[in-house]
Amino acid sequence: MVQYRQRYKKGIALDMRRRGFSYSEIQNRLGVPKSTLNSWLGKIKLDDELVKKLYNRKIEALRKSSTRRISQLKENIATIQNISSQEVSKISQRELWFMGVVLYWRERLGDDLRRGVRFSSADPYLLKFFLKWLREIGKIPDEEITFNIFVGADRRTMTDDIIEHWSRAIGFPKHKFAHIYFQKVYRRKKGSGRKRKSNPRTLDGFIQIRVKASSLLARQISGWIKGIQRQYWAVPGSTGDVLIGMVKIKKQEES
Length: 255
Prior knowledge:
Helix content: 55-70%
Number of strands: 6
Radius of gyration: 32 Å
Number of domains: 2
Strand order of the largest sheet: 1-6-2-3
């Protein structure tokens, strides 16, 4: 009976192979070890058309498998994002103040305070956040806020479209975007010593928020940053003072 079953399975395996089925498909259908299939089917030579058919089916299977993995990954990411987004409750005014100070610290520390408050980004949401911070924390009216646009030189003919884009994106009228600066940006081509042009940051460039008569606010921000430094490093003064203090502490520990 066992030998009959083996002969029966072998006959099916031979027939399936001659019709262009792969070893994996035959193994899944019959539950026969691959080593057994090798001994049964090793001498069968497939014609070019069947080889091509097998190859195309393999590529299609890989494509479907990749699509499933990507879809599953997207679902996992969406689930994690949804759960983590719910962890953010209502943001208090103090939290808003602190977030804006740290954001500005990252963006502009080291600038000449006499030039006032400036903030640059290509992200509309980050720009809108900083504008909210200026209004609610800095008490800056919209009349005191202007914008510069920086964009690639090859976008000169699209000035109106770019202004329209940023006006819609951050909710300010078009006349606020009076100054547009066209930049030549280069990046080195991979595997080549030559350089080629590319647009700055994105096709629509990036925005620089400027606050008129903002020297007081700039000095306040600088003071807030120093206050944060003192809280964490207990070293007064600038970033340079902080680094010097950390070196002194390290030397003391070593001695």
